[in-house]
Amino acid sequence: MEIEEIVEMDEKHFMNVYSGRYPLYVEKAEGIKIYSKDGKVYRDFLAGIGVNALGYSSQRFKAALKDQIDKIIHCSNLYYIEPQSELEKKLCQNSCYDRVFFANSGSEANEGALKLARKYFKKKGTNKFETITADKSFHGRTMSTVTATGQDKYKKPFTPLPEGFYTVPFNDLEALKKAVTDKTAAIMLEPIQGEGGIYPAEKEYLEGVRQLCDQKDILLIFDEVQCGMGRTGELFAYQNYGVEADIITLAKALGGGVPIGAFMAREEVASAFEPGDHGTTFGGNPLATRAASEVMDIMLEAGFLESVKEKGIYLRAELDKLVAENDNLLETRGIGLMLALEFDQSLSAKKMTNQLFERGFLVNGVKEHTLRLLPPLVVEKEDIDLLIKNIKEIIAEK
Ligand SMILES: *Cc1c(COP(=O)(O)O)cnc(C)c1O
């Protein structure tokens, strides 16, 4: 197809939910660069929204996928699937959890976690079904997860919403305590809020939430769909805090670009699910689990996570320098390679994103005055230097 036809078909036939796509006509990618059909090249500091953790050129990852395609892509969960068992083993042996369920997306992983929490208390014979989440959170697009999401714009168009969901300010333990009732089944939080603008939880807050959940018999769910899988320089974000949730959800980077989601729990919680309680057609299929299994092998190799930490510190320091030099820049936030640069009212994140796009960089204006960076975890210092140089020039132009 010619570029004109691609655009025409999209405008004519695709549901109108991604209006204003950037004029990048994705053709192929290499390293951390995406090539457009119009000949332009972009350094990707968004990584498919935190998905392409290995960038685009891991030969090892590609070889594993090709090998798996030749063997089998999909079969049902009626049979034993070796890559699935491999992935189960790797996830459980490297976390505090005993059991996992494989879904296809972050929303689905959260949906499953919420179902597990409800089933857990139903099985106990209690009438606990409510879920408390945080303002500015994002948990997905299905009816329950959009309801759990603490941002009105995502859910207003879809009322009436499922019942039993409440939101409170993030990092505010007192507000959470007040919202708990004898019907509260779960508290679901992102250890680092992503779509809300990159807001890390405070350590004392998560410790307090853990304590509250223990005292009141509430299940704590960590949505690590964006902040998990190496993004923070730890395999899981909770490992930065030393606080363990009862259920954790994963997706985005888990499959390195192949769609897969997961939720995990300890035996005591997981055992609430009985045969028939939950299931999926695609979830955990041979291709997706083989992909995730290879992603985990690569991330667990000596030095990989260490290098994420180092590059995160480097990028953060470079951004901090910009903040120190410019009155229009207020602060940086985040952990590892999940970072935000906050502008004052005079700078638009959308405009900055457009200007960087023109210069060949993909970033995300996650809020009006907040720039979000989620580069591939294999980003190099030279790429970071180039990005910083270009942000500097754009600010100087203003
Ligand atoms: C992206 C995201 C989701 C939703 O994932 P999908 O794969 O788009 O359904 C849920 N929670 C968090 C924290 C996310 O960042």
Automatic annotation (TrEMBL):
GO molecular-function terms, A-Z: identical protein binding; N2-acetyl-L-ornithine:2-oxoglutarate 5-aminotransferase activity; pyridoxal phosphate binding
**What's the further remark here?**
May also have succinyldiaminopimelate aminotransferase activity, thus carrying out the corresponding step in lysine biosynthesis.
GO CC entries: cytoplasm
Which co-factors does it depend on?
pyridoxal 5'-phosphate
Cofactor note text: Binds 1 pyridoxal phosphate per subunit.
Reactions catalysed, semicolon-separated, are:
N(2)-acetyl-L-ornithine + 2-oxoglutarate = N-acetyl-L-glutamate 5-semialdehyde + L-glutamate
Q: What quaternary structure, including any partners, is listed in this protein's UniProt entry? A: Homodimer.
Mind telling me which Pfam families this protein's record contains?
Answer: Aminotran_3
Supply the EC number(s): 2.6.1.11
Kindly report the protein's main subcellular placement as a broad class. cytoplasm
Top-rank lineage group of the source organism: Bacteria
Report the HAMAP family cross-referenced here. ArgD_aminotrans_3
Q: Which gene encodes it?
A: argD
> What is this protein's name?
Acetylornithine aminotransferase
Q: Which PANTHER family match?
A: ACETYLORNITHINE AMINOTRANSFERASE, MITOCHONDRIAL (PTHR11986:SF79), AMINOTRANSFERASE CLASS III (PTHR11986)
Answer whether the UniProt record assigns the keyword Cytoplasm to this protein. Answer: yes
Binding positions for N(2)-acetyl-L-ornithine per the UniProt entry: R141, T280
Q: What SUPFAM superfamilies does the entry give?
A: PLP-dependent transferases
Q: List localization entries.
A: Cytoplasm
Organism, scientific name: Halanaerobium saccharolyticum
Q: Check the record and name the Gene3D superfamilies matching this protein.
A: Aspartate Aminotransferase, domain 1, Type I PLP-dependent aspartate aminotransferase-like (Major domain)
